[in-house]
Amino acid sequence: MELTDEKLKYLRLLAVKYPSIPSVCREIINLKAILNLPKGTEHFMSDIHGEYEAFYHIMNNAAGVIKEKVDMIFAERMTPRERQEICTLVYYPTEKIKLLKRLNAVTPYWYKINLKNLTELAKFLSSKYTRSKVRKALPPEFSYIIDELLHAQSDEDNNQYVYHEKILDTIIDIDSADAFIDALSTLIKRLAVDHLHIVGDIYDRGPNADRIMDLLISHHSVDIEWGNHDILWMGAACGSEACIANVLRNNLKYDNIEILENTYAISLRSLTLFAEQTYPDMQPMDAALKAVSVILFKLEGQIIMRHPEYDMVDRLLLDKIDKGRGVVRIDGQEYELNDCYFPTLDTGDAYTLTTEEQHVIDDLRAAFVNSHMLRKHVRFLYEKGSTYMCYNGNLLFHGCIPMTEDGGFAAMRLDGRDYKGRAYMDHAAKVARRAFFGNSDQSDVDFMWYLWCGKKSPLAGRTMKTFERTFVVDESTYDEPKNPYYRYYKQEEYCRKILHEFGLDSSISHIINGHTPIKVSKGESPLKANNRLIVIDGGFCRAYQKTTGIAGYTLIYNSHGMRLKAHQPFESIAKVLEENKDIESSSNFFETEAERVMVKDTDNGKEIMETIHDLELLLAAYRQGMIVTK
After folding, report:
1. Cα gap 214→224, rounded to integer Å
2. Angle between the 355-369 and 241-253 helix axes, to the nearest 10 degrees?
3. What is the DSSP letter of 259?
4. Cα 145–Cα 149–Cα 151 angle in degrees, nearest 5
5. Taking a C-beta distance cutoff of 8 angstroms, is the pair 565, 589 a contact?
6. pLDDT of 292-301, one tens digit each?
7. Which residues contact residue 560 at a Cβ distance below 8 angstroms, ignoring those fewer than 6 apart?
């Protein structure tokens, strides 16, 4: 066996972890066995928009996977109501037990039956994982006992049965059953979904994005593809004044200021005082919304003028306002304004902040940049996220791959070079990281705003008409032209072209997209381009549900294939507890694998095979005396 000096150096480092022939053999046997287990279940969600309760419930019920497993195991032994009781107990163990105790329904017999049922469910779900992986997932306070119960084997004299019965009796006798049920439920939820993909837009509209972030930080395995609403908060944490103004405007508009003041400790005092003085005839929050909107359009104008490469001069509208006549000129045509009172606007110098406006934005910038909790959440978005991800043969991104009118990849000029397709997505992520982590210049911070709303932003995918929707009467001006990608993504040849650009097999891979709500009530399908592209906008945002007709989609990809889960609106956790009322979901198996997908077929499997190859080289090096065992 011939090995380069570099390879020998690597093998010597590997030998530190595996210092003997038996240790190498043991690991090769273990890894080859793992390759032949079924792949873990992946769960895809997007566009959560701060709707914590609905998100938390779908996390708890694993998009219906847990109910399916309960039905599979217990269908012949239990009524539908009894099976749903088990599901609710898994979703919310502490709350459900508390409720049942108030109804005097919790007895030693109830404990015994449910401990057995949950153990059986956990055992079923653990069957596709190695014992080592299951052990790592066990809640530490009961890890040894749960491990014993999960791996019980039948024996001739029923010794193990008696042994496990005694374990359960003791758990109940010493008043540990509540905590044990909670631990089993945690394990079941952990085993039901092996990996979670969040395909963008955790923030804005709904009130509790911060609680969602805390939940994701505690998750065992997650990645995030940034959405335009996420990048907006990331830009605000980087100190982009335009992003800060947009965040404030969105939260004032949707009456979500608690997340700013209570969670992120960002005081709105300077803004509200300024707004009350400037617009004394308006309600305080309406005045604050108007004040920050004017500040926003000034700041956006400054960025547009600093960056002609953004090609957004058509969005410079403040200087086109005629306050006396109450109109604004857009694309050569005049439109009536719904508000003509702009005391801080000098149309001769429209994009310069007044001294008072600058003071407000300076205060707010300091608050955003120095918010400990915001930086914690944003750092996690950077740690787990990017503009896109290739995972197990699928391409995940939130918005679009910017395209030209003729179906080519659109070029974007950054750092003095033109980028398009995958190179643009990679460089956009690089600039975004520089804006937060590096000694970035103003250009990097400005680009965070561009990713929020730029014409060629892969996260936005459309021309935003914020000014028109705020101040113009004529609603025909509100139309927001989409990137040509949204025409071409319906055609299989263009989806294949995109997949090829990212190095994926265009005949079997998929694009998994968020961002655009699917209008089911109008017959629209989330499956496009002969199933090469799947739109999974979660539809969590209540404001969209009247238009879409449902509460959106999530996607499940397990060893048997891919299926979409269509969800009805979530009522409340209280309804689940009191009536066992789960989210109503329907499954659409749109792609079933001819042969079950195993770990060896996944990205992780490829890494394992590379490790096995290296271990086999190390084994040969040991046996030939090239490296001496310890």
Report:
1. 14
2. 90
3. I
4. 120
5. no
6. 999 999 999 9
7. 592, 593, 596, 597
